[in-house]
Structures are given as structure tokens and as C-alpha cells.
Amino acid sequence: MNDIKLALLGSEGAGKSAVLVRFLTKRFIGEYASNANSLYRKRLSIEGRLLHLEVFDPCSQSGESRCILEEPVEWADGFIVVYNISDRTSFLNAQNILCQIKDARGESCKGEMDKMDIPICLVGNKQDLCHARQVFEEEGRALAQEHRCHFQEVSAAEDYLEISNLFTKLIRHVMDHLKYRADLRRYSGSKSMAKLINNVFGKRRKSV
Ligand SMILES: Nc1nc2c(ncn2[C@@H]2O[C@H](COP(=O)(O)OP(=O)(O)OP(=O)(O)O)[C@@H](O)[C@H]2O)c(=O)[nH]1
User: What's the number of domains the chain is made of?
Assistant: First the structure.
């Protein structure tokens, strides 16, 4: 069984727990405890493969709180970055969080990520509050394009299908990404083994 680890990031009150609970239970529950980190687990099947999904819903992150971000950024295979379309500050914070993920992952992967994007979905939540909209859909889409990630506007209060689809799309991307990284490791492993064999036996052959 494959393990898939996702982290939900975003401003306080953006609706991270609401989005996640909608996906896990198909329900919208108005209020959630927000002062603790939570880890949710679910088994699901995608493309005939049984998956063990873990989703980390940490305490809210403000743009400056790098240390709070460190843990989920190191741990997760993929990210859902949530902002509230009726709160511009949450959008600016999402922008910061996207940069921080890229910075952290870029440093640890030394450029290899250029060939395959980190699995991230930028989510504009509370679409039902469009009368109080402060962030245009085009702005969300443009930010996602800039960071080469998926984008979706949703309403945790009203939608299930769109939220389910975005999780499925992201999990597929994570599966491809994990396979790509495993292939890369195998390839670089076999390349260094070939180099080693060549160094040992190649030199010996010359001296005969
Ligand atoms: N109108 C509307 N309200 C929503 C929606 N999603 C969440 N909310 C409300 O927004 C508030 C915050 O939702 P949470 O899911 O707790 O937000 P959070 O990002 O997890 O917040 P923290 O736990 O504080 O980090 C709650 O009162 C929810 O009922 C939505 O799609 N539409």
C-alpha cells in the first residue's frame, strides 16, 4: 500500500479544516477546534491502487512564521494552500507560503525539481461569499501559473464534488512525483554503480 502525505496550509479562518472535513466526510461542519495540529488518516483507492492518505492540518500560519511551516514542508509529499476569496490578506499570505515551499524544497533538491513540479494545489475557498469578494479568480489563477501549481476556487460550505476532484488530482500528481523521484534515485544509483565498476575494472583491463 502506498503512503501519501499532504499538508494543508493557509491563514487562520481561511477554511482549511472545512475543506478537509468536506473531503473526508462529505459534510460541512461550521466550527472546528483551531488551536492544535491535527493529523487525519483515510484509506482510498485511486486507479486501482490502495492508498493510505495522511493529511496534516497544522495551526494557522501567518506569512512570517517560517518555523511553523518547517515541519509540514519537510514532512509532506504534496500541499494544499488555502486562502479565503473574501480576505485579501489571506491571499497575500498564500503567496508567501507558496514561495516558502519552493524555497525549502528547492534548496533540499538542488534543481532536480525543475523537471517535475512540487505537487501543490492553490485553493480559493468561500466561493459562496462572492458578494464580498476581495480576490478575483484570475488573480488566483495567475498566482498558480506563476508557481506552476493546480488552482481551484471552491466553497467548503456548498461543494463536495469540486473538493473531492481537487484532492484526487493532487494525489495523482503526488503518485507521479514519488515515482519520478524513485526512478531518479534508481537511475543515479545505477549510474554511480556503473562508474564504480568502470573505475575498478576499466583500470585493471588497461594494466593487463
Ligand atoms: N461562508 C463560508 N464559510 C466557510 C467556508 N469554509 C469555512 N467557513 C467558515 O470559516 C470559518 C473558519 O473555518 P475553518 O475551517 O475553521 O478555518 P481554518 O483555516 O481551519 O482556521 P484555523 O483552524 O483557525 O486555522 C468557520 O466559521 C467556517 O464555518 C465556506 O466555504 N463558506
Answer: 1
| ipTM at complex level | 0.98
The number of beta carbons lying within 10 Å of the beta carbon of residue 155 is 21
Rounded Cα distance, 138 and 135, in Å: 8
Ligand 1, residue 59: give the atom nearest the CA.
25
Tens-place pLDDT, residues 153-200: 999 999 999 999 999 999 999 999 988 878 877 777 666 666 666 776
CATH number of the domain residue 12 falls in: 3.40.50.300
Q: Does some domain include residue 208?
A: no
Grid coordinates in use for 25? 466526510
Residue 14 lies inside a defined structural domain of this protein: yes
Distance from residue 116's CA to the centre of ligand 1 (Å):
32
Pocket of ligand 1 (CB under 6 A): 10, 12-18, 30-32, 34, 60, 125-126, 128-129, 155-157
Predicted structure pTM score: 0.85
Q: What are 18-56's pLDDT values in tens digits?
A: 999 999 999 998 776 666 788 899 999 988 889 999 999
Distance from C-alpha of 97 to C-alpha of 37, rounded to nearest angstrom: 17
Task: Look at residue 121 and give its three-state secondary structure.
Answer: strand
Question: Is there a domain that residue 189 lies in?
Answer: yes
